[in-house]
Amino acid sequence: MTREDDDPDPKNANLKSLSIGEETISSPIKENITKTLSKSTVIIKATPEIEGAVVKINGKGTSLEVEVPSVVNIEVTSKDGTEKKTYTLELKGKPIP
User: Which pLDDT belongs to residue 97?
Assistant: First the structure.
């Protein structure tokens, strides 16, 4: 194993996991996701693949409570700041029984 194999790619702007309430989606994560929920709000949490990458949910931090329905933008900036990837999460509401 070389030293390069030990170093994570500083240009990596991918999500490792995305939690939508109690459900967690793991890598690889699609850039456009649609979920239908029977809740009026949900907590979204996003974790980057590489430590040091910056995640912002709707321009804020790595965790955010949002209303349902809504469209959530999750931006990941690579550790070295050269790459950005935006994930779009569309939350649709269904009637609460």
Answer: 63
Give the number of residues written for the chain: 97
What's the CA angle centered on 75, arms 16 and 50, to 5 degrees? 35
Q: Which two tokens stand for residue 60?
A: 């804020």
pLDDT at 1 over 60: no
In angstroms, what is the C-alpha Rg of the chain? 15
Centre a 10 Å sphere on the Cβ of residue 18 and count the other Cβ atoms it contains: 23
Which residues is 92 bridged to in the sheet? 36
pTM over 0.90: no
Cis amide linkage into residue 10, ω under 30° from 0: no
Q: In 3D, which of 24, 21, 9 has the Cα closest to residue 76?
A: 9
